[in-house]
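Entry:
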Amino acid sequence: DLICETSDPTLSSVVADQFRIGYEAALIAERLARGGAAPKKVLLIEPRRVVTRASTDSVAVDDPHVSAAMQLIRLHACDGIEVDDVVAKVPVSRSVLQRRFRSVLGRSIHDIIVDARVKRAKELLAETDLPLAAVAERSGITPQSYLNVVFKSHVGETPLSYRKRMAHVSDLERMI
């Protein structure tokens, strides 16, 4: 953190899930010690979060309209912004902006908005004890039943199971 905060510009960083990495490594080591086989596939551990600082505060794309739209999405995705709101702030038509998003980012405007909301929901679930209804409200994925559907389709587990898994990681951290 010290290096990231004192650099100019301040540097964004990835917070690795070190305790989960250690836990999974211990499970593999135990399996090997008992004569089991090494895993055939690489186990990918999702980072706990990305700390965004000035080095990534703007979207690194050459298209100024896509960049402006991405900045708007980053600032207001959880405030209920929709595709039409983004299009209204950029001086090109909806179809042109959609084509540019697909060309530059490989995704639609709507996909980017939903990703930002899911990212916020994950942060709230991992870092707070807010009720799911409040997580839905603060992430912009309402009602709560829709949060459950969207979250599961993007993350592969329900918000509640994600929260429990993240709490388990926090429990491991406290034990060490």
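The mean pLDDT is 90.
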